[in-house]
């Protein structure tokens, strides 16, 4: 980062299983509320996993016209809503004079999966002539970014990283780089996903990746707990507004924190399994800390990827210990997926937003459902109750299928 422009966060917005605003989601995180429950969006009675962390009581008409709603997949609706709230929180205004200096990066792992399933049914049941002319633009992953850009007239650098569960974090990191090198003054960045669909749930279930605690969904997501049995599918969006420091200061913006480092690596190992010892994740963390000029003793908090799967939690623990060494035992490491579920491509955006709120409020969300210590996951996972702490320096990890690893590093300004 040396010699590059400094980048800060000036706005946050979210739609999650814990609330339809960032503030409501944050309050429920601190209170240890689980967003998991029986699936309501389709009949899951014949599925091995019959629950998920769904967004509830979301009204897209609060943000989008009725005509536009019909032309947007649910993941895009989430992206637009979260972006609108982040823009409102930031107070950033886009006009003719600065439109080309504001860009958008919204990542997603699977994009318009619901639209894909619905239109495939139309094709097989009613024929090709009845497939919607909006099928392709509603389905494609970049449409979250596209519709946000159109909504605000943001004409600067634009993109949609697709790196599975690291997509949202890559979007934030890439947007950070765009501003740091001078190609934009502000970026709307994050992730959006709406994967609670029959085919998606069936597919992840067939992989044995999902928890099957159908009798008690709210305790199913239990990262770092010895009795974890898989992740809980979640949905939603998390978006932040990034700005060049002097640009933000000049307009009197309220600053959450500074983003100071970005690590991005590949395992080059396996389609779904992390590399042995969490080697790829360790390199991602080390790269972000090097980029930030951050040493192991400075880190106060890590928002872990922490999916509640056996292999991921163990190998992420190993990665953290590799990078932080003796300091690892003194660092708070919580997984907010214990409450939000796993939002796939949106997870990194939501979890980075949580990191920003932890800096502002001096509070660290817990890892709930932690009841059975696992000797292979022997970190301070902030069990079951939120903690007050001065969060000066922090990291957020996002690890995706295909061996994609992303770490974002932040500091309190």
Would you write up a description of this structure?
Helix 3 (74-90) packs across helix 6 (143-152), helix 7 (167-180) packs across helix 13 and helix 10 (279-292) packs across helix 11 (310-324). The model has no long low-confidence stretch (mean pLDDT 97). The protein has helices at residues 22-30, 66-69, 74-90, 113-126, 135-139, 143-152, 167-180, 198-206, 245-250, 279-292, 310-324, 337-340, 347-361, and strands spanning 7-15, 37-38, 51-52, 102-107, 158-159, 186-193, 236-244, 257-266, 301-303, 332-334, 363-364, 387-388, 393-400, 404-411. The protein is globular and about 65 Å long. The relative contact order is 0.19. The strands form three sheets. The protein has a ten-stranded mixed β-sheet, sandwiched between helices. Strand 13 (393-400) and strand 14 (404-411) form a beta hairpin. The protein is built from 13 helices and 14 strands. 33% of the residues lie in helices and 18% in strands. With 413 residues, the protein is α/β, with parallel strands linked by helices.
Termini Cα gap: 16 Å
Characterize the main sheet: 10 strands, mixed
Order of helices and strands: EHEEHHEHHHEHEHEHEHEHEHHEEEE
Averaging pLDDT over every residue, what do you get? Answer: 97
- Indicate the overall shape: globular
| Rg over CA atoms | 20 Å
Helix content: 25-40%
How are strands sequenced across the largest beta sheet?
5-4-6-7-1-8-14-13-9-10
**Count of beta strands:** 14
Give the low-confidence spans: none
Number of helices: 13
- The percent range for strand residues is 15-25%
Secondary structure class reads alpha/beta
